[in-house]
């Protein structure tokens, strides 16, 4: 096995966050596979040398992959990464009906691992996939060990790895050719102030501004009532407590005065990591996604920056929501690079 010949296949690649980080670690990514074809242009534009395959792996077989890529079994230099959509196992209390059909995608990924037996396996997912009753992750780990893999896994807080957000994720690394361990935290937490704001190249903008450049400093519009709410919300970490009892502004779901879910309509803090960037980060009604001091939700580029995408990463989509989905679903490239370097270190 030769380190500089490490190569990867990125299952559930989306717009390429994991691929970008692995490439930055010196790993050649052959292909990204995803059933969402809207990610293809963004993936290939930013990750040269990697191709995008629009495939649904619940219907796509290992034989199909062997035919399409001409890859071999038991390749010690091969990495299979399977960071499947994970909304069903999220600890966030939302309806699971839309995501129910994707809840066992890790087992569809398992059939590729079992068939090809790559040298390394990478999985990143929400914490709930490892702890919730009936989650398939326990069975997947048992299967990996039965295939001869050494497995390391745990829940990692990405704010301890240079990612400027509180993003807790289940992370698994497995090796058939060596020992393996999860990477150690890198140290100092990076805050919103460290990466956003005027000094970091983000001029002040108003809600509804559309940036037609590739930088995409675009912010969603706000209704008159939501603008009033934000104007009354304390800067730098404020929440809805300052207006929740005003009849003209209060939210019907909290009219009884319940003191919970204060992140909704809340502002980020300058001197803390941001909350987890989700696919809905462009909307103040979906979490603490308001700018620390400006009266708007964070912009598309601000969300991408908190996800550690490079400044020149170009997102190509049909709407604010479609691009936010690409950004929020991604594995932060900076964390992916750390994972990649960890594999390189063990690939002796």
What features would you describe in this structure?
27% of the residues lie in helices and 12% in strands. It has 11 helices and 7 strands. Strands 3-2-1-4-5-7-6 form a 7-stranded mixed beta sheet, sandwiched between helices.
Helix content estimate: 25-40%
Instruction: Give helix and strand order, one letter per element, not per position.
Output: EHEHEHEHEHHEEHHHHH
Intertermini distance: 7 Å
Instruction: Provide mean pLDDT, rounded.
Output: 90
| CATH superfamily placement of the domain at 3-189 and 331-346 | Vaccinia Virus protein VP39
Category by helix and strand content: alpha/beta
So, CATH architecture of the domain at 3-189 and 331-346? 3-Layer(aba) Sandwich
Share in β-strands:
5-15%
Strand order of the largest sheet: 3-2-1-4-5-7-6
Q: Compute the gyration radius: what is it?
A: 21 Å
Tell me, briefly, the overall form. elongated
Main β sheet profile: 7 strands, mixed
Question: pLDDT under 50 segments (min length 5)?
Answer: 88-100
**Total strand count, please?**
7
What CATH first level of the domain at 3-189 and 331-346 would be assigned? Answer: Alpha Beta
Q: Count of DSSP helices?
A: 11
**CATH third-tier fold name of the domain at 3-189 and 331-346:** Rossmann fold
């Amino acid at each position: 096995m030769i380190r500089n010949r490490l190569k990867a296949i990125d299952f559930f690649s989306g717009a390429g966050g994991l691929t970008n980080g692995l490439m930055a670690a010196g790993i050649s990514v052959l292909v990204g596979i995803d059933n969402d074809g809207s990610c293809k242009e963004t993936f290939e534009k930013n990750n040269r040398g990697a191709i995008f395959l629009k495939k649904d792996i619940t219907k796509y077989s290992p034989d199909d992959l062997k035919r399409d890529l001409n890859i071999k079994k038991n390749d010690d230099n091969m990495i299979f990464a399977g960071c499947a959509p994970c909304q069903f196992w999220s600890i966030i209390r939302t309806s699971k009906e839309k995501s129910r059909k994707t809840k066992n995608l890790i087992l569809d990924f398992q059939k590729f691992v079992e068939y090809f037996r790559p040298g390394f396996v990478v999985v990143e997912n929400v914490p709930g996939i490892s702890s919730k009753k009936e989650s398939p992750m326990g069975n997947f780990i048992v299967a990996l060990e039965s295939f001869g893999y050494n497995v390391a896994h745990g829940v990692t807080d990405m704010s301890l790895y240079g990612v400027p957000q509180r993003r807790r994720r289940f992370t698994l690394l497995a090796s058939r050719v060596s020992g393996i361990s999860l990477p150690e935290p890198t140290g100092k937490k990076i805050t919103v102030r460290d990466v956003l704001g005027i000094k970091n190249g983000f001029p002040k903008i108003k809600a509804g501004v559309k940036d037609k450049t590739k930088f995409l400093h675009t912010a969603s519009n706000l209704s008159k009532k939501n603008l009033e709410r934000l104007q009354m919300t304390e800067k730098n970490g404020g929440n809805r407590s300052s207006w929740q009892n005003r009849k003209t502004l209060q939210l019907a779901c909290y009219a009884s005065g319940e003191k919970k879910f204060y992140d909704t309509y809340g502002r980020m803090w300058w001197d803390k990591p941001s909350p987890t960037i989700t696919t809905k980060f462009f909307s103040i009604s979906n979490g603490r996604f308001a700018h620390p001091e400006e009266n708007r939700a964070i912009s598309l580029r601000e969300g991408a920056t908190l996800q550690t995408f490079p400044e020149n990463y170009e997102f190509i989509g049909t709407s604010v929501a479609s691009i936010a989905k690409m950004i929020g679903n991604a594995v932060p490239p900076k964390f992916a690079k750390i994972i990649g370097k960890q594999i390189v270190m063990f690939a002796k």
